[in-house]
Amino acid sequence: MATFEITTRSVKGDLKTDTMILNMGPQHPSTHGVLRLELVVDGEVIVDVIPHIGYLHRCFEKHAEQMTNYQQVIPYVDRMDYVAAMGNELAYVLAVEKLLGIEVPERVQYIRVIMAELQRIASHLLAIGTYGLDLGAFTPFLWCFREREKILDLFEITCGARLLYNYIWVGGVSHDLPSEFGKKLKDFLKTFPKALKEINDLLTFNKIFIDRTANVGVLPADVAINYGCSGPMLRGSGVKFDLRKNEPYLVYDRFEFDIPVGEGKMGTVGDCWDRYYVRVREMEESLKIIEQAWEQLPPGDVHSAIPKKVRPPQGEVYFRTENPRGEIGFYIISDGHSASPFRVKARAPSFVNLSVLPEISRGYMIADLVAILGSVDIVLGEVDR
Amino acid sequence: MPEILNVLIASVIPLLFILVYAVVILWVEIKVASHVQDRLGYMYTGGFHGWAQPIADLLKLLTKEHITPERSDKILFTLAPILVFASSYAAYAALPFTSTFIAANLNIGIFYIVAITSFVVIGILMAGWSSNNKYSLLGAMRSVAQIVSYEIPTVLSILTVIVAVGTLNLQEICEIQKGGLFSWNIFKYPPFMLITFLIYFTASLAEVNRTPFDIPEAESELVAGYHTEYTGMKFAMFYLAEYANMFLVSGIAAILFFGGWSSPFGEFLAGPGWGVFWFVSKGLFFVFLQIMLRWTLPRLRVDQLMYVSWKVLTPISFVNLMVVGLWAILK
């Protein structure tokens, strides 16, 4: 289906039509938080989109400089992408460890991989669930949440928190895996593929769902690269780039897994359906990683490498990892004598991915904009920081 | 005097029915939704599975403040919900609940219902325009476009039935289908009546703004569509009208295709009392179908909706009408 022709036309005689400005948000059911979109619309056809952000700005970067030490930044990092907190912690902690130049025990690395991948599944479940909600399908949302609960339960028995964990510490993790973790994880690994199939049957391959998402919001690969998109946004456009494979960190090079990319199965490569389906398939790949990691999990002490004092030498570091929403990077400068970072800069994937929204939504209808915004999958906590 | 009393009774019974039915179906909708979504829903209010929750909701809506937006057109704003509810309530007059009760036995019953329910469009447009809100206006415009386009396949499929039975009187349409399951219209002219029913059911979903055609009030796009600015009992009127319309289209489906109040076993379990039972349960079955559909399907886009109406349903129902008409003449 082609996009609509944008016409601000003057009809015969004195009748004139004009564009209208429609404010979508900050209080709107499907802007996924406090995002305000200023829409210039011609009837229901979108002429332009101007995102206004900053409603959730919390001065994260300034806060990070004011802390008494490096570890205190971790809870703040949690609150950036609050539905994938583990991933944020991981990126920050790895950056600090790189600055310190310390090596962590193998067990810690494996636990971190398991947690990061569980978090990826949880985050994608939320993404596809709310995406269904955006398109008017209520049931998949609650089915996704049912599965997400199981992952949150796993996190809860491990570290006591369900959303913002402060679990991954510099040099280790806060708690070792509890004894019942293995059984519960295996239960989850066994039941999840079935649940995923149910969601696929109900939503992914639903005719109406495909009609709504295929050929909508097409993001060509070159545009995606030029805007710096990452994660499912980039892979949905057919670019096979995943930091877990291209720049392996932790122990990711030891596992077998694929990188799903958009193939244009239902329409054009890089449409909303492709981005959505990349997320679904990434969950399957994450399952594979968790299975392998659990089998190879070595024994050891998770606290042995935690440094008493974190006082990195003078220098700077940039470290990036693959978060559920894309590439998250931390740039940290240490002045060499104080216990807190001199400067912390976060590269937030949602922020970068959101910047491409006006580019891909011109010429579609308001209903499509909701579909496109949902497929970008932003978390405002991370966009505004 | 007895004349007036008769009229009063005849008009109060459908109103009572709508109110009782609305409370019940609100509860059913929430419970069905909850169980489809693997959760429990209301569990506390009133004891057994929260049966009193819809009543509590209704009381809450009754006691809420009426907020009228400052720069709205106040007369139209107040009038709109009344018009919407009144037109669907008026349609109940021609609905035969059983062989002995029909509020107004019109000889053009079905025509009257189609005509009177068209007023809903005006009410919705009034609501959207008078709210002075862009979302409301967009919702109202969508709604009008949708209802007007879907009236065509609806009416064409109703016309097909009328061609087959040869009367516009709903009571007579039910009479004709008396005598068991296989004398129902749905089994006549196979398979064309079945196709007619499917078209009617699909189009009626759009007429009452239910998923997958709930575009006018698309929550994730237009907040609440044409009733975004409404609060309290005015909002409840729209809600009530929606549920009343749901039963109305289901009831018409039951009358036109499934024998209305006639028993599926011929003379067995027939009679005026059982008639009410059969009619209401057939109607509720289709309401239940609508509810199940709502919690299963995503929603279409405006242009796709128009496509379905003009390029799929209308041509098919037209051909269908021709075939059934020809068949009826040749028979």
> pLDDT below 50 for ≥5 consecutive residues: which ranges of chain B?
none
CATH class call of chain A? Mainly Alpha
Taking all Cα atoms into account, the compactness measure Rg of chain B is: 20 Å
Biggest sheet of chain A, strands in spatial order?
Answer: 1-2-3
Question: CATH topology of chain A, what is it called?
Answer: Cytochrome-c3 Hydrogenase, chain B
Mean pLDDT of chain A: 86
- Give the beta-strand count of chain B: 0
3D architecture notes:
The complex is a heterodimer of chains A (385) and B (331). Chain A has 385 residues and is of the alpha+beta class. Chain A has a single domain (60-383), classed as Cytochrome-c3 Hydrogenase, chain B (Orthogonal Bundle). Helices cover 46% and strands 12% of the residues of chain A. In chain A, strands 1-2-3 form a 3-stranded antiparallel beta sheet. Chain A has a 3-stranded antiparallel beta sheet with strand order 6-7-8. In chain A, strand 2 and strand 3 (45-52) form a beta hairpin. In chain A, helix 4 (106-134) packs antiparallel against helix 5 (139-159). The longest helix of chain A has 29 residues, at 106-134. In chain A, 50% of the residues are buried. Chain B is mainly alpha-helical. Chain B has one domain (73-330). In chain B, 67% of the residues lie in helices and 0% in strands. In chain B, helix 5 runs antiparallel to helix 6 (134-165), helix 6 (134-165) packs parallel to helix 12 (302-330) and helix 8 (192-207) packs antiparallel against helix 10. The radius of gyration of chain B is 20 Å and the shape is globular. Chain B starts with a helix and ends with a helix. The chains are: A alpha+beta (385), B mainly alpha (331). Chain A: GO terms for molecular function: NAD binding; NADH dehydrogenase (quinone) (non-electrogenic) activity; quinone binding. Chain A: Its EC number is 7.1.1.-.
